[in-house]
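Researcher: Going back to the complex we discussed earlier. I've cleaned up the inputs and rechecked each line, so this should be the final set. Can you rerun the prediction on the complete assembly and write out the structure?
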Amino acid sequence: MGVQLTVGMGEIQVVRGVGNVLTALGLGSCIGVCLYDPLTRVAGMVHVVLPKSQADKTGELPGKFADTAIPAIVQRMVEQGANVSRLKAAIAGGAQLFQFGVSNSLDVGARNAEAVVAALREAGISLQAKDVGGNAGRTLRLVSDNGLVVVRAIGGAERELVVLGNIFTSSGVAA
Amino acid sequence: MSAQPEYAFSEEQFDALREIANIGMGKASSALADLIGTTILINVPQAVCVPISNLSNILREPEQVTAGVYLQVTGDISGHAVFVFEVHSAQRLAGMLLGMPEAGLDETSASVLMEIGNIMLSAYLTAISDFTGLVLLPSPPVMALDMGCAILSAVIANMQRLDDFAVTIATDIYDPTGLISGTFVFLPEPGGIHRILEAIGMV
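Model: Rerun complete. Updated structure for the full complex:
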């Protein structure tokens, strides 16, 4: 019954129940945001591309921008039975890939990370773990059974970032 | 500039874009062949309109480690050009120019690879410029070594695109011995595509 879904750039995926895995492949300057409700096992992931939406523009994918992505995914999760007060978050990505001859305009990653952290705070969601910055791309996976979040950097092995369903992880990280 | 959405382009217009890309890739691949003294083959360019969320699907192996050289294009046509090549190809390419079988991935080979990408991208742009009579100005190139899809996503983030679809023209290149393979991606901005099509009487 479980599904394996890839979360493309700007996409939001929300699933409920056990056996589901959400994956964002090759996050460069983008940020993958994992949200999890331990009680109902509603799991969501959004692949944020840019920090801020253009106010005058409609018909965009809300998942593309940090400021619209977080409210949009929270709404989708609530529709699936999640409760905002129980949601826990983990984020990864926001790297600066281009190392050689780089211009400042390319460091969208850092601005993305700031914007996502701010949007989560605004939504009142506790950020449990983050793996952001640096200069390597990452693949991010969220397992719906227990909110396990794993990250794999290029050329490296998968490593556990956090288990969002663990009731003992409640302090959150300093943002 | 026209507000026509990109996905409204006709098949004839896509054919024209493919043909222009073919001319550009011909020049780019012969520039590479001259540089390393071997024959380089190109596949017929694929011009497609894809949702930005699925853009990395144009790479055959999105998670594979690749070297990516990227530059921005301004002038009459604006857009983004990326050359991604599989990491072992990159090492062999750099090795050929540095006189060793396979180069490591240090600063020296990085600058060699960036120069190779730059020469190819410039040859491509010059060919399109000659053919259409439009001015295309390349920015200095930048380079990354990462998963192919991460490189493309960093480029897209830098594009700050306002629409959800992009026209991409992607071409695979390889040498017959199988030692070198890569993908060349051109992402014109919507206004840039119109300029190209106008210049060749396709609008």
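Model: Worth noting: The mean pLDDT of chain B is 85.
Researcher: Good, that matches what I expected from the previous run.
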